[in-house]
Write a structure and sequence with these properties.
The protein is mostly helical. It contains 14 helices and no strands. It has one domain: ABC transporter involved in vitamin B12 uptake, BtuC (Orthogonal Bundle).
Length: about 350
């Protein structure tokens, strides 16, 4: 089948995904402890964006809830979920492993430790400002994935690719333990760190959203630029070299970008697992394996799923709120087991 025919078949699925994303975001904005009707949402947006007058009997508290609380939270969950999903898609391509993700490789835990160290030390760097926590998350997350890759190459050179996943999970457990230990010695920040370790989008504002959105979209554009190289890397480093791809340089570049995506998401939302594992698999099942399509659709699919997960987290036991990481784990843990055992079964059939 030609590329044009494939693209024509993909277009309806892309349109459906976009409609689903807009619908889910609208529902998430409307639904909560206080329901805000579509008519009220339209009136508030018209007033805020175009200066249109509000109806005389309009409840101003609803505008405050929508504009200052609901909208920042929903859009933060969308962009954070999209960023994590894109990072997972890239790692699965680079490492040629369906179980690879920021969560399973310990990148999320490493980024979280960096952010927590900034939090408890209360240091400030004037020229970084609001970017200090994302910068700390990026540096520590990138160091974690590099450590996982280095240890796996030393312990099992030329061995099974699952080794890097096992090492990543060990690093994740270790870094989470260090974070918990830091929390136990810093009672002032203990509650905040505990929330951080299970994920939450509460208390975010439009400044946070703008930073998360900017990092997500710029990083996505950068990764799409390397989409051809990512496709070639799935065939192995030797094949990539024969086709003129500098595998090591490309890997380091895209892994640095994924660490930035993960570090920024973790700095605002805490550790939220499995979204970066689930979304890329769903996307590849629907749209195929071309990273030029997989990466943007992972952003949309992961963002939609995360917004829904956050909606469940804040409404299922309303007025109480549960950790959004618990919601994603309930779905993600069985999915992880399914992918792992399916891979083992396929390997046995091939005789690997």
């Amino acid at each position: 089948m030609s590329t044009n025919k494939k693209n024509i078949k993909i277009i309806p699925a892309v349109i459906i995904a976009l409609i689903a994303a807009v619908t889910v975001v609208t529902v998430c904005i409307a639904v909560g402890s206080v329901y805000i009707s579509p008519k009220e949402i339209f009136a508030i947006f018209s007033h805020k964006l175009f200066g249109q007058p509000l109806p005389g009997d309009f409840d101003m508290s609803r505008m405050s809830i929508l504009w200052n609380i609901r909208i920042p939270r929903v859009f933060m969950s969308f962009f954070a979920g999209g960023a994590l999903s894109v990072s997972g898609a890239v790692m699965q391509s680079v490492l040629k492993n369906p179980l690879a993700s920021s969560y399973t490789l310990g990148v999320s835990s490493g980024a979280s430790l960096g952010v927590v160290l900034v939090m408890v030390s209360e240091i400030t760097i004037p020229f970084l400002g609001s970017f200090l926590s994302p910068a700390a998350g990026f540096i520590s997350g990138f160091m974690t994935v590099m450590a996982a890759l280095l240890l796996s190459s030393v312990l099992e050179r030329g061995g099974r690719n699952n080794t890097v996943i096992l090492i990543g999970m060990v690093l994740s457990l270790f870094l989470n333990a260090v974070t918990t230990l830091i929390a136990s010695f810093n009672t002032k920040h203990q509650a905040r760190i505990s929330i951080w370790q299970t994920g939450s989008f509460a208390g975010k504002n439009m400044t946070h959203v703008l930073i998360m959105a900017s990092v997500s979209m710029i990083s996505l554009a950068c990764l799409i630029f390397f989409s051809r190289e990512l496709d070639i890397l799935t065939f192995g480093d030797e094949q990539a070299a024969s086709m003129g791809v500098q595998a090591k340089r490309v890997k380091n570049t895209v892994l640095a970008v994924t660490a930035l995506l993960t570090g920024t998401a973790v700095s605002f939302s805490g550790i939220i697992g499995f979204i970066d594992l689930i979304a890329p698999h769903v996307v590849r099942k629907i749209y195929g394996n071309s990273n030029r399509i997989v990466l943007p659709m992972s952003m949309i699919t992961g963002g939609t799923f995360m917004a829904l997960a956050d909606l469940v987290a804040r409404t299922i036991l309303s007025p109480r709120e549960i950790a959004v990481g618990a919601v994603t784990a309930i779905i993600g843990a069985p999915f992880f087991a399914y992918v792992y055992f399916r891979g083992r079964r396929e390997a046995n059939v091939r005789g690997d």
